[in-house]
Amino acid sequence: MDINDSRYDNQGLHVVLALFTVDNGKFKVLLIKRKNQPFKGKWILVGGCAYNYETGEEAMVRELNEKTKIQNIDFEMFDVFTNPNRSPLKRMIAIGYIGVSDASIIKNFSQTEKASNAEWFEIDKIPELGYDHQDILDKAIKTLKEKIFTSTIMKKLYPDTFTLPQLQKTYESILNTKLDRRNFRKKLINSNIIEETHQTLKNEAVRPAKLYRFTSNEVKFNLYK
Predict the structure, then answer these.
(1) Quick one: 6-148 is in which CATH superfamily?
(2) What angle do CA 57, 60, 70 make, to 5 degrees?
(3) For the segment 121-169, what is each residue's pLDDT rounded down to a tens digit?
(4) Each residue of 162-204: pLDDT tens digit?
C-alpha cells in the first residue's frame, strides 16, 4: 500500500440507520427530511458522516441524536454499501444499521441543524429517497424479516407484556402476510420464547386477553414448517 497514491484520496464513511416500528398495526420506518445539499428537501434514512476519530457505532449514536434528538436506541450493523457513486460529493462507503423502537420516541419533533422534519412512514408509502437509501431500506426490511425469527429484536418492541393478537398483528405487518391464528400461537408457545404472566388485559368489548412476555431464551422458530 502506497499511502500517497491518489486513488486513496477523497473518501469518507457514512453511517445509516433503518429504524423500524409497528404503530397501530402498521409497519413503519423513520425518515428525516434534509435541510442541506445534496438532496435538499428529500427524505432519507437517519444518518450522516463519521468523524475520523469515531467508531461506526459512536458516529451512529451521535448522528441519531443530532438529527432527531433520539437517544438510547439499540441497533446493530447489517450490511456495508460500497457503490463508488452513492454520494455525489465523493466516495462514501456506508455502514448500514438496523433497529426497532416504540413509535412514541418521535413526538413534537423540532427541526435540527440538518433535518427539517422526522416522521414514521408506512413501508408501502415511502417517498422518493435521497442517496441510495431505497436500496439500503430494501435490504434492511429483508434483514428484519429474517431477524424476527432468529434474534431478540422483537423484544425491543415489546419489552414488557403483550397479548398474542397484538404480537401476531405485528408479525403480519412486518411480513406483509396473513398468518393462521392457531398455527402462530402453537409455534410461538412451543418455541418457549414467550411465557404467560398470569395477568390479563381488560377490554369492555371482549373478554379479557392473557398477557405474555418474552423469556430470556434464544429466539429461533419457523412459522412455515
Answers:
(1) Nucleoside Triphosphate Pyrophosphohydrolase (3.90.79.10)
(2) 125
(3) 999 999 999 999 999 999 999 999 999 888 888 888 888 899 999 999 9
(4) 999 999 999 999 999 999 999 999 888 888 888 898 888 776 5
Cα dist from 27 to 14, 131, 176, 213, whole Å: 25, 23, 9, 21
Residue 42 near residue 34 (C-beta atoms within 8 A): yes
Q: Cβ(43)–Cβ(52) under 8 Å?
A: no
Please state which architecture CATH assigns to domain 158-214: Orthogonal Bundle (1.10)
- What are the cell numbers at 220? 429461533
CA distance 95 to 81: 6
What is the distance between the alpha carbons of residues 116 and 43, in angstroms, rounded to a whole number? Answer: 10
User: Do residues 82 and 136 touch, judged by C-beta distance below 8 A?
Assistant: no
Parse the chain into domains and list their residue ranges. Answer: 6-148, 158-214
Question: Which of the pair, 23 or 128, is modelled with greater confidence?
Answer: 128
